[in-house]
Amino acid sequence: MKSPASIKKAAEWALPYWTRGQAGRETPNDLFRVLYFGWLVALTLKLLGSAWDVSWHFKWLRDDLAPPHLLNSAGTAIVVALTIIHGYTGYGVDKLALRLIQWGTGIFLVAVPLDLINHRVNGLDITSWSPSHIMLYVGTFFMIAGVIRGWFMGAPPGRERTFVLAAFLAFFLENVHFPEQHQEYGILSVGAWDNNAVYAEPILLQFAADQMGRPVDRTMMLGFALPVPDFLYPVYAVVAGLSVLVVARLLIGRFGAATLVAGAYVAFRTLIWPLLTFTGFPPSAVPFFLVVAGLAVDVAFLLRMPAVRAVVGAVGATAVAYGALVVQSKIMGAVYGAVKGQEGLAGAPPLATPSAVWAGLGLLAAWLAAEWIARRRVPAPAPIEAPAVVTA
Predict the structure, then answer these.
(1) How far is residue 283 from each of residues 90, 120, 338, measured CA to CA in Å?
(2) What are the sequence ranges of the domains in the chain?
């Protein structure tokens, strides 16, 4: 706990910056770092709360004041404070980054009471794919996108810039992949049921059964644990998850960037797994296949090397199109193969193999869109100037 003297000193440092300004104003380096390390703290609290939340809802009947919700709310409170600071002072963000942060935070705050109303009206919300939950993900999506842009445009070049950018992109991947955790927890819960073990408390199972209008049996368990079609998991993982990894590779601009971001997220899920299970909460399948996906994306980007592009350009447009299809096929084979292998070894949601066609087409469209936006809409970041002396 900070002493009154340290609090006073921090206030004396911060108060001179509390002036009205437009987004894009020159930001001193020390203030810029404080703001974005504040974002790291906020998003870490939200990450820990959301990770605990999924496991909690596979064990206990829902409670608005459950500890995971309170932990997530602490992170949200910091998010709101940072959003107000950026909006009032204009420090640390350009206009687009500020708008993304404001809209994202606003959508999230609107979604919270809507989700509470949804639970009051409809009872147990069995799937993480419900409209009110999707609003929460969408709000967080825009919020973190704004943070990524703000850091990307304003952070001075260096190792810190790269690793903090990778951290923000890992938070972004976690939010995008978050709804998939329903199937990752669900498949192991069904397996436990088949082995005469039950993770959920009887009150939760009975509540779900009453809502479905049937007894507590395997059909009810399937409806509770795996309520969406089997094709949704692999298609969404490929189109949405790999798109984030493509963006990570484009923004960081180095070989291994996609693998780094995917590996950071998977490492977190691997570390949190024993912390949850050893305290009596249900386990989940960990998406190890995302590391394979990240490596596939990094390898695919080797085609962007000048020497390779020169050879491909000399062959012609037909070769480019053929090459794109070959790369897409290799990535799809690697990712679907990794999911299939994980399904037999470490556990994974059911894999609808024919869905690879739709996943591949979706990934190709998303990849081309990301490349187009990166070429036309993302300017080169400008280093922050040396901090000016701020006086009261």
Answers:
(1) 43, 28, 20
(2) 229-383
